[in-house]
Amino acid sequence: MDHPWIGEAQPRALSPEDFETAAQRLQCEAAAIRAVWEVEAAGRHFLSDGSVVRRFEPHHFPREHWQALGFVPRAGEAPWRAALRLSDEAMFRTAARLDLEAACRATSWGAPQIMGFNHRDAGFGSAVEMVAHMAFGAPQQLGAFVQLIEGWELAPALRAHDWAAFARRYNGTGQIDSYARRMEAAWRRHAQGKASPVVLRVGDRGAAVVRLQAALGIAEDGAFGPETLAAVRAFQTSEGLSVDGVVGAQTWAALTRGPVTVVPPAQDTPMDALLEQVREWSATAGALAAAVAALTQVVPPPALALLVTGALGLGLVAVAAWGWRRARF
Question: pTM of the prediction?
Answer without folding.
Answer: 0.81
